[in-house]
Recover the amino acids of this structure.
């Protein structure tokens, strides 16, 4: 497999996870973040089974399980009629799946620590303005290019 130089726009959870996966497959990865310091944005979220599978692949599932709350069922009803509008039973899925409620900071910090531990570069204060193709490569453009 050919080793690639890959720039990832954004050092949020998805960018951090993508950087880890790509670097572990031998690619050279650099994260580009517009803020002066990469940090979590928002309060909380619910990780679905697919996201938990990604964390497991990265070896980060156990730390996240310790920081979150397991969700086995989501149920919602219309306030006026009482009619069920949502009923997700994770146990009905194969392999004992479930969701996980976590604070965004817990997810971000776990991924960010792994990125730092892997020695990946996070360049902050970068405002991307577009992309162009140079010699068969896509090149991200920032305000300074």
């Amino acid at each position: 497999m050919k080793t690639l130089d890959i720039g990832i726009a954004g050092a949020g959870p998805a960018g951090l996870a993508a950087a880890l996966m790509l670097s572990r497959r031998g690619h050279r990865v650099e994260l580009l973040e517009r803020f002066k310091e990469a940090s979590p944005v928002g309060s909380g979220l619910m990780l679905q089974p697919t996201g938990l599978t990604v964390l497991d692949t990265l070896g980060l599932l156990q730390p996240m399980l310790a920081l979150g709350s397991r969700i086995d069922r989501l149920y919602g009803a219309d306030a006026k009629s009482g009619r069920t509008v949502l009923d997700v039973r994770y146990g009905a899925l194969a392999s004992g799946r479930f969701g996980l409620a976590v604070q965004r900071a817990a997810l971000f910090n776990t991924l960010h620590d792994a990125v730092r531990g892997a020695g990946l570069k996070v360049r902050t204060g970068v405002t991307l303005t577009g992309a162009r193709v140079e010699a068969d490569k896509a090149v991200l453009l920032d305000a300074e290019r």
